[in-house]
Amino acid sequence: MSIDYGIILQVAALGFLVAMLYTIFKKNDREEYAYVVMLLGVMVVMFKVINVINELFAAIRTMFRF
Amino acid sequence: MEIVPIVVFAIASTILVLILRDSRPEMAVLLSILVGAALFFSVVSKIGIVVTTLSSIASKSDVGTLHLSTLLKIVGVAYITEFGAQVCRDANEGAIANKVELAGKVIIMVLAVPIVLVILDTILRLLP
After folding, report:
1. Cβ contact (<8 Å) for A15 and B27?
2. Cβ neighbours of residue A27 under 8 Å, at least 6 residues apart?
3. Are A11 and A48 contacting, i.e. CB atoms less than 8 angstroms apart?
């Protein structure tokens, strides 16, 4: 019942990467690519976060005898 | 001294979330959810010890273990509700946070109904 703490650095790095790519694409007048990159980043990160939240709520369930 | 790594981790993650918040606020919200889950996982075993001790004391005494499990469920619902509501509030969605809290309150009231009925029953039986 533990998570891999590396995932936090992975999500932070992905967040910085998406922010950079978003700004770069916006500066080059390619707003559509910027939005696509942002949506992809949000989807990938949300996939990881949903796994962790699943584990979290399973741990809460066993802890508080749901 | 186990609180020190936890606090240091929390402060470092807060700074990371702050960096993300003004450029990519949705990433900041997701990162804060992850950090909250990680902080919970770091103390979850100790909560387990306390819960087990409470259960053993309750089973030794005359108090019904049924009520203890309901109480623990209420505490669990309260924790999850507060977690979700605070995440929404950090993302500037106060309305959604209030609705989450309302749902939590309603669920806790529904969970507490059997205990309230037992209390009323006992009181009514005590009266002549």
Report:
1. yes
2. none
3. yes
What ranges in chain B are assigned the alpha helix state H? 3-21, 25-60, 65-90, 94-126
**pLDDT tens digits for B8-60?**
999 999 999 999 999 999 999 999 999 999 999 998 888 889 888 988 888 88
In this prediction the ipTM stands at 0.89
The backbone torsions φ and ψ at residue B121, rounded to the nearest 5 degrees and listed phi first, read: -60, -45
- Is A12 within 8 Å of B41 when comparing Cβ atoms? no
Of residues B24, B35, B37, nearest to A53 (C-beta)? B37
SS3 content of chain A, % helix, strand, coil (to 5): 85, 0, 15
